[in-house]
C-alpha cells in the first residue's frame, strides 16, 4: 500500500497574512502531538507567523465538529478571525462499531462546516485500523510514512490563498 501524501504543491503560497487555527483531540496524545507539530512546521514554511497559529484542544474526535464551530466563533468575537481551521484527531478501530459511527459522523460534520462557515476546514482526522498505522501516518515510524500533519498545514494555506 502506497500512501504518497499531498504530493508536490503546485506553487509556493504565501501564508504571511493568515491566521490558522488548529483544534486537536486529546486522545492518542503521542500521535496527536506529532501531527500538530507537523502542521505547525508546514504552516511556518508557508510563512504563517507563529503568533497567527492558534492551538486549542477538545476531549476527543467526536467533539471536533462542534468545537471547530465554537473555535471560529470565539476568535471572531475576540476580533481575531481565523482564515481556516485544521481539526486534528485520531480514530483507531477497536472491537465494536464505535469506530465506524464516530468516523462517519465526524467526517460528514467537518465537511459540512466548510459550507456553513464559508471557511476552509481541513480534514485532519486519521481513521486507522491499528496503532501502527496511526503512528506511521504521524511520522513516528522511521521510513514508513510521512507526517500527515504537514499535508494538512499545506492544504490550509493553499485553500486560503489559491482562490482569492
In words, what does this structure look like?
The chain is α/β, with parallel strands linked by helices and 164 residues long. The protein has one domain (20-159): Lumazine/riboflavin synthase (Rossmann fold, 3-Layer(aba) Sandwich), CATH 3.40.50. The protein is built from five helices and four strands; from the N terminus they run βαβαβαβαα. It has a four-stranded parallel beta sheet with strand order 2-1-3-4, with helices on both faces. The N and C termini lie far apart (36 Å).
Low-confidence stretches: none
- Helix content class: 40-55%
Sheet with the most strands: spatial strand order = 2-1-3-4
Order of helices and strands: EHEHEHEHH
| CATH homology group | Lumazine/riboflavin synthase
Rg, nearest Å:
15 Å
The tally of strands reads: 4
Biggest sheet overview: 4 strands, parallel
The oligomeric status of these chains comes to single chain
CATH class: Alpha Beta
- Count up the helices: 5
Determine the CATH topology.
Answer: Rossmann fold
Organism: Debaryomyces hansenii
GO molecular function: 6,7-dimethyl-8-ribityllumazine synthase activity
Family: Belongs to the DMRL synthase family.
Pfam family, one: DMRL_synthase
Write a concise keyword list for the protein shown above.
Rossmann fold, alpha/beta, 5 helices, four-stranded parallel β-sheet
List the helices and strands and how they pair.
Elements (H helix, E strand, L loop, with lengths): L19 E6 L3 H17 L7 E6 L5 H14 L6 E9 L5 H20 L6 E5 L2 H7 L10 H14 L3
Parallel strand pairs: 1-2, 1-3, 3-4
Helix pairs in contact: 1-5, 2-3
Amino acid at each position: 500500500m502506497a500512501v504518497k501524501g499531498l504530493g508536490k504543491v503546485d506553487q509556493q503560497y504565501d501564508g504571511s497574512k493568515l491566521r490558522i487555527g488548529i483544534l486537536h483531540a486529546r486522545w492518542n496524545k503521542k500521535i496527536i502531538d506529532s501531527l500538530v507539530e507537523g502542521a505547525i512546521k508546514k504552516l511556518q514554511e508557508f510563512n504563517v507567523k507563529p503568533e497567527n497559529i492558534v492551538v486549542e484542544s477538545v476531549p476527543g474526535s467526536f467533539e471536533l465538529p462542534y468545537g471547530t464551530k465554537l473555535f471560529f466563533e470565539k476568535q471572531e468575537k475576540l476580533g481575531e478571525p481565523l482564515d481556516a481551521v485544521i481539526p486534528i484527531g485520531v480514530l483507531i478501530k477497536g472491537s465494536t462499531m464505535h469506530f465506524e459511527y464516530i468516523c462517519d459522523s465526524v467526517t460528514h460534520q467537518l465537511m459540512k462546516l466548510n459550507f456553513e462557515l464559508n471557511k476552509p476546514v481541513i480534514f485532519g482526522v486519521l481513521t486507522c485500523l491499528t496503532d501502527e498505522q496511526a503512528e506511521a501516518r504521524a511520522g513516528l515510524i522511521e521510513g514508513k510514512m510521512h507526517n500527515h500533519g504537514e499535508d494538512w498545514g499545506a492544504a490550509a494555506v493553499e485553500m486560503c490563498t489559491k482562490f482569492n
